[in-house]
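Re-run with default settings, no changes from the original entry. Doing this only to confirm the output is reproducible before filing.
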Amino acid sequence: MSAKTARITAVETYDIRFPTSRELDGSDAMNPDPDYSAAYLVLRTDAGDGLEGHGFAFTIGRGNDVQVAAIEALREHIVGRPVDQLCADPGTLNRDLIGDSQLRWLGPEKGVMHMAIGAVVNAVWDLAAKRARKPLWQLLAEGDPAWLVSQVDFRYIADALTPEEALDLLRRGRAGGEERTAALLERGYPAYTTSPGWLGYSDDKLTRLAREAVAEGFTQIKLKVGADLQDDIRRCRTARAAVGPDIRIAIDANQRWNVDEAVEWTRALAEFDPYWIEEPTSPDDILGHAAVRKGVAPIKVATGEHVQNRIIFKQLLQAGAIDVLQLDAARVGGVNENLAILLLAAKFGVPVCPHAGGVGLCELVQHLSMFDYVALSGTTENRVIEFVDHLHEHFVTPTVIQDGHYAAPTAPGFSAQMHHDSIATYSYPHGTFWAADTATTKAVTA
């Protein structure tokens, strides 16, 4: 490469959809027929090193085209940026994307545009980690605390966490980091599985998958609830019989209930010793979560996969509304905002158990939890990452589960890159799968 400054030359976008609704994979009380999808992008450069940045926003089918359009609306902020500067300081791009006033009006800092920002920012971090020849968790864990603080936007959260407090948390979090890195590489990070618990599965399938989960080393499973109480009682009884008394069972209502209904329904399932109730009501209802937490104790309250930004997380923590914080790698504004959320959780002493599953969320979020363990919280006690055994085969460096633990990624990057063949097959509507599916449908209805 000559002395010419390498720059971002292209942002390629793809609407990728998988037909998971046909087997009821991912089904729950609020989302009965999800088609797991990714609004996917690739950042290309003229650096001559062959490295690309890959990122995505997760959706569940229709509307994925809207999410792709939102990513494309950010292109002018990205193309032409110097690669070295961008990878050294992704926070600059993060602030520019959030600060585009005309696009900000569509949020601000929430919804489709904010998820698009997250996808782009995550793609930059993927590129930065590849250029550093490190997995993202290691790049962050070895990062200078002052640099990490510079990546965080403290606007709207400084009343709960100041930059000085964040710096102190990160400096103290480095103590013992080498030992924890060695332990992580040897043992991995604890996981739990939702694979047995989809609402559309039969009791026989639930029982089989729950027993398999225990045999595979998982110490926690999760069941979807909230559509029918008597059905939930039967399914919880079935699951408890399958796994025995010592395996944790979490339950997840996916925002189905009003506050009073959440308390009543959760209490009705208390005999099965649920570890937490997840998303009992609207993810925006801070005081509602606080009321549910008071009403269902000692069952824990968990939420976060639909919490739209660091500001809502701040309020949930300030209000004492949650026992478990479930950040999502793609819902908020990418790695930078998730650093803020991890720091808030550390400040308030609330364990982080990320949301995963979907398309590629397991691949991404493992890096955030591993950074948190090595360089911030310093513990995995009462911390687990969700695992769902769907669609990993489409990724170049897929999640690896060993004895109920996420194996620490060692390949450079954010584990976000999909295989070319998967993109070509499942791009909607002209990928080979969807084209054939449309032709078959037309033939049947003709």
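The chain has two domains: 8-154, 173-421. Residues 111-132 form the longest helix (22 residues).
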